[in-house]
Write the structure tokens for this entry.
Amino acid sequence: MKKSKRLWIFLCILTFINLVFYLTRPGGDKMLLYVSDLLPVICSGICVFCLVKTVKKFQEWDFTKTSWLMIHTGIALYFIAEITYGVLEVFEIVDMDVAFPTIADYIWAIGYIPIVVGLLMMFTGYLKSGLPMGHTKLYCCVAPLVLILLSVVFYFLLIPIFRDPESSGLVKFFYIFYPVADLFIVIPAVLLMYITHLFGRGTISKPWKYLAFGFMLFTVGDLLYAYLDWMGKYESGNLIDLGWNVGYLLIALAAVYQTELLESFNGSEK
Amino acid sequence: MNAYTNEYAQKIYNILAPMVGDLMSKSIIKSNTAKLGIKEDSIQLSNLPIIAAEMKKGLTVFLGSGAAETVALRIANIQ
């Protein structure tokens, strides 16, 4: 069985387990806390493992390998942040709402940098490749829609958070940082998704497609998290965690598809 | 699928289509032959090394230079 198929099965099983735990809460709140802290560690760990394999698979050290390495570095930092968050909440019994931002948030924040760099490298690499960019008219139609969407996010989420007198400057910074940093990720991700759409069912674009989906799920999760946490309605075991967990596994799938693609040229099936 | 009457264009298409899809393959062949100042249906054996080198640039972003070189060699070695 192909690695990608195995990972798909794993993704479905994990999503099912995730849903069952979050909806039925067997074992009570304590068990839910353990599961909600453990699943992101497992998912991000799998993602890091798959990305390491992908980076190793590139034969030559060029900008393509570097862009995947950047994404790997960012996800590895997310992995460390997930572990830190879990340790603080489960072993140190830290109230994460009160302690926000924790050291985990700083690590997540640093992780954004290599991810944005990696995605931008992919996008600029594509621009330089001379391959078709699609219809200019579509870009012109989509740009105002994106601007409207951004305005809605800024008006209904970011500005109220910024004006909230009860939150400290550092807390406000992190509440705003996540959605804003996500925009830097989601814009190149959406562009990559459109580009991959031009390729139809071509195998070459599959990794980018799943990367884009994964990062888009992160963005949706972060936006909902920023809103719910600011309203004091976020607690461990919230359904939005599913967005991050599935996001990690989709990025892992992207890595596996890239590895399989490279193996088909290298002629190795390790 | 027979997309071209020119045998070299068809062979390039056969290499590219499984990887990049039907539309993109045609678009890549069209743009790269246009760079040579020729049409898809007038590709000759002598054009293949130049077309292959151009295509390598486009494929590198997805495959890295090593695998892109493999595809370029397949195109350059079409008989």
